[in-house]
Amino acid sequence: MTVTYVIDGSGITGLDGFWDAIGEAVNGPGGYFGRSLDAFADCLGGGFGTPEDGSFVIEWRDHARSARALGHEETARRLDRLLPRVHPTNRARVERELAEARAGRGPTLFDQLVEIIADRTGPGTLRLL
Hints:
By secondary structure, the protein is mainly alpha-helical. The chain is 50% helix and 12% strand. It has helices at 15-27, 37-44, 63-69, 72-82, 91-102, 109-121, and strands spanning 3-8, 56-61, 126-128. It has a three-stranded parallel beta sheet. Helix 2 (37-44) runs parallel beside helix 6 and helix 4 runs antiparallel to helix 5. It is globular, with a radius of gyration of 15 Å. The two termini are 22 Å apart. The mean pLDDT is 93.
């Protein structure tokens, strides 16, 4: 049986809101499902609330609103917070990504989250409504 996890995108106002929404969708109120892009990707692999066999669907309702909230401004905010902690070998790349996000270019957090879901779960697992 396939499990459907519903993300209510209407209440997502930033990345922290997404972490809360996906945590609650998968693990119930107050549920945890990673709070970084890497942890999110790992959690999608199963064993952190999702079935090990990958028999689940993520239904992201009001995704257009989430896309706006997780757009370039929020992407830049995340990168700006990340920059002081990034390894020196990655600093130049993160600085470039930050400059692009501030200019309203390049992939957004929404784009990255959708890509992670597609890469980790396969086709048909994400429904954008």
